[in-house]
Amino acid sequence: MLLQLNNIFKWVNSGGQRIFLLKDINLDVEEGEFISVMGPSGSGKSTLLNVIGMLDTFDEGEYNFLHECVHTLKEKHRANLYKEYIGFVFQSYHLLDDLTVQENLEMPLLYKKFKGSERKAMVADMLDRFNIVGKKDLFPVQLSGGQQQLVGVARALIANPKLILADEPTGNLNSQQSEEIMQLFKKLNEEDGVTIIQVTHSEKNAAYGSRIINLLDGRKV
Amino acid sequence: MFKNYLKIAWRNLMKKKAFSLVNIFGLATGLAACMLLILYVLDETSYDSHHAEVEQIYRVATQVEDKKWAATPAPLAQGLKTDFPEVETVTRILNFPNTDNLLLENTEKSRKFYVNKGYYADSTFFELFTYESKYGNLSKALASPNTVVLSETIATKLFGSENPLNKIISVEIPFGKLDYTVKAVFKDTGTKSHLSPNLLLSMQNGDIGQWVMSQNSWANNNLFHTYLKLQKGSSTANFQSKLPAFFERYAGEELSAYSIKKTLFLQPLQDIYLKSDIGNEIAPNGNMTYLYIFSAIAFFLLLIACVNFMNLSTARSEKRAKEVGVRKVMGANKDSLVYQFLGESMLLSLLALLLSIVIVAAVLPAFNAFVQKSLSLFLYPKATLWIMVITAMTGVLSGLYPAFYLSSFKPVTVLKGRIKNNLSATILRKGLVVFQFAVSVSLILVSVVIWKQMDFIQNKDLGFKKEQQLVIPFRSENTVKNYTALKNETLKNSNIVTATVGSTYPGFELVSDMSFYAEGKTKEENVYMKFAQVDHDYIETLEYNLLQGRDFSQGQDTDIESIIINETAAKNFGYDIDKAVGRQITYEFGEESNSLTIIGVVKDFNHQSLHETISPYGIVKLDQSQPSYFIANINGDLDEALAHIEGVWNTINPKVPFEYSFIGDDFDKNYATEKKTSTIVFIFMFIAIFIACIGLFGLASFSAEQRKKEVGIRRVLGAKISEITLMQLKDFLVLVIIAILVASPLAYYFGETWLQNFSYQISISWSLFAITTCATLLIALVTISAQVIKSATANPVKSLRTE
After folding, report:
1. In principle, which of B101, B120, B243, B321 could form an S-S bond with B94, CB 3.0–4.6 Å?
2. Do residues B563 and B597 make contact, with C-beta atoms less than 8 angstroms apart?
């Protein structure tokens, strides 16, 4: 068992009324799963992903990640936990414009206190694995959207996370680029055993996953 | 990690070159100004610090009622030494009246020039004041008669690289020309003193020795500057408490004969240069108040530069928000982000420091010329240290706010969309802009007040002709003797209307004064009057307005017992102006009493600078043999007249260098400090405005960025460009107006305080504030309009498009 959500509630107060963003979510994720989260706009997909990624808090319920009770952990421990085990992929890539491909890949390693030589080896390995060695000195603006997302995925993977959280990773890409990224996810999941949770609007992309979770108004349906 | 930060910081800098340049340049300007002022302040505060055990050295000064006087009677020094065992050393310095310039000559090499700051000194001078010897034994040099000690600068000028020891130089003063032996040379580089002597003459010299020895009055001739050194460990307070009894013992009887109450007080040597501004200072001193003002200006400049830097950095925060979000998601904690942003601002301030060093190096020569100092960048290790500390503090201070502001962003929100406009941050930013402008506006207002006052004093009718009045000092016996010939020859040129000679002229500090009393009054009801000793034609030459009576005339012997007084004097004596002529006034000198007959009354004129009100003033006939100033009233071609006089001078007084000045210039020298200050205030006003404008520009671009969406929506809904422009301008102009409201009373207060230095002042009117307000608004408008118009005309489709 990688993670377990038990009766998760998240709400905001608006005009004296409680508006639920997440309502009684229960979810068990095993290692090696590839889950697609679907639902209409505002159904709570991204919120759920952020809660799993520990970027956002929840108001009620329990969250266990690798047998740690996330809901009782202090901010710092929580940060350490996701730093070590989770990689993020974003719809709009969120690469740092001022850094080259190589430096973008290196950045997470800096915060994980890897030594210089180690970092170099890991970055080189990742560039190699994603076939982007020739682009290592380019800045994000010099790349196409698909290539940028490729770098985004590579960056998420570089520290060998157990879980990848992808929030509409193909939302800004054309169909061919989408296809490539989804193939990559599938390969990572099958060959390397990386657990993946993705949020998507596309049935086609959802089909890559082994399991689909549908959300409506913060509730699992 | 560090490298990564550095890289990001550098690339950020390079990406927004103009923005970074403005930011760094603003800070560098602030730092450079601060550096210059620190150097200046340190230099001013380091006077007389080179003397050994300086905290035990004091100058003894006297006080009569509220008038303080830096010099004492001659026997005081010996009296103190004899009566007080705790007085280790005493020394006297005599700056004899009318010897402010001495003509030095090395006949061997026929080098001849005037030198100032030459004093007669007791042989103990070098026991008290620490100077390093270049040649000879300083402590013994002044012990024998007819000796002189030179500063290294003067020695080099006289003798070149030669060793001047035991060589003879001639010193020419109005009493004669004398030969003295050089007994020592002291090093004068790196030593700053309120005395800063160029040469010291032994007080036992032939010219003055007899006179000095005969000075045994404890009441008269307060011409000797007395310095003493207390024994280590002795209590100054204790010593001071014994002074009144001591002085009463020796001087009490004599003083009560003159019905004067006089006390002694001590001035710590190190305080003299900056804090003493009393009568008969040996040389013009610095001014502590101005130092405070300059320090305050330096502090505020740096502060507004920092504020600016903060504003510009936070203005860019939106651009950096995404970076913060990504870094946080990638595992950065708040600390590392704080360090990153602090590091960046440190880097920027370091760059600013480097730039500011370049700026300082570039402007230092001009600054030196202006403040008449020889400052250099690394003159004071203390200054270097200070500047490093200040830079580091600037980096931290100006980075602190952006660092904490940026690092507090929540990754989920910044990565999802826009950061919310934090209300407190907005208020803080606006407050900072108000602060910057308040400082600038205050400086503008104060500058305008200063400028108007300076204009006023320079154009005020002083009651005499100030321009085109040539003055030639008679510094030697021969020149005094040749006066009549000089006058006759000079007047042969038609450009020269009249010429005369006098012991003084307006604007020049008078040394002669005496108490007189009117007919039917007693000695106790006396009027203290300053007086000038002049030759005939003096009134005509200076174009004083003679209200009653006549000028002195040639060949009238009774003129010796006559006096011409000013209106104020007449009033103080209780004489009506039209009835004063023919009345007498009496003075007592020792046991004798003498009377002078008033032969004329002149309209009040400003015989002193406009710092002072007009006091009773008398003009008496000059005794021929006295040293004095030749004055020629020129009307016509100045250059021609000057050439003529120089020619005449060189024929009549060969071998004496031709030296001249103009009364107008000499008079205006009284305002040197004010002029210097006003220039400094002007310069720093411009710098402050410049920096504040950068700040306003930053805020304008920041706000334009933030209101992009709002402006877009308004445009789509039909708002005109002009309406949007006005809406945004209004926001900023309100800030500037608040700043003006805050600054005006402050500026009024400072302006009034400064004007208190003058007896004749302008009044600060509301129009001044109106002009300043308009000027400031205009400056602000020009600064922000580009940004505002740019944002108003931007394509709304672009600004409304979301990712």
Report:
1. B120
2. yes
